Amino acid sequence: MESLPLARPGSEEVRDFERARLNAVLRRPGMYGGEVAIRLLMEGMAFIDGRQALWQEQLGELGRAGASGTTGVDGAFKGIFTSYEDDGAAASVYADLAHRNQWLDLDRTLTGDEYQRLLDATQSWESEDQDLPSVLIAFGPPSVWFG
Question: Across residues 16-27, what is the average pLDDT?
Answer without folding.
Answer: 97
